[in-house]
């Protein structure tokens, strides 16, 4: 009996044998594509069809992320891994924390002080013919990212509103066969690689405490998702201390 490849197996979270994921893969015809195109098609689906947003917890199955239709770094990563494995692409998870400042602007100022200083983060590592690459650029959907680029068109560095990059005007987020990033500059701690997200969450979890966890699941994340939708429409909430050069120019023009 051949040994099981831990980078291709289904798990509780990577439930690519679920009907919703199996049907999606079949209907999209991803199995018929060349290897590099399979990766790209799955990546683009998770990046843009699955919108940026906040699910109830990190450790939900890929099928639940697909049903929600939105996700953040960890949950979209789970779906990405499940879809990649379903089409025979070996992948693993790399775990980190990011500084909470990266989420400022999405997290309402009223509750921002309640957020832990470091937030659990991950990206997906994929085996290609050239070796392993890092995929992180799938987190923010294109309309959301474009709103940030328009608002901060006069700066390249941004740590806030869900982005952490030093090349905002042209961040490496599109699939071209190499690594992609959009929150990399916010990384604080590196936890290394894991065969599956299940293994990562067994060892690490976002410890809010009971009260904050209840508030996050039932109130705060819905508030955050409403702000995400507003940002996507070009209405960015103000963040104290975060420069918005385009706005200062508009205010100067109005004053003149």
UniProtKB/TrEMBL annotation:
Which Pfam families does its entry note?
Transglut_core
* GO terms under biological process: proteolysis
Q: Which keywords appear in this protein's UniProt record, sorted alphabetically?
A: Hydrolase, Protease
Q: What range(s) does the Transglutaminase-like domain occupy?
A: 36-136
GO molecular function per UniProt: peptidase activity
Q: Which InterPro entries does the entry link to?
A: Papain-like_cys_pep_sf, Transglutaminase-like
Domain of life the protein comes from: Bacteria
Gene3D superfamilies, from UniProt? 3.10.620.30
Question: Per its record, how is this protein called by name?
Answer: Transglutaminase-like enzyme, putative cysteine protease
Q: What organism does this protein naturally occur in?
A: Roseovarius mucosus DSM 17069
Q: What is the lineage of its organism?
A: Bacteria, Pseudomonadati, Pseudomonadota, Alphaproteobacteria, Rhodobacterales
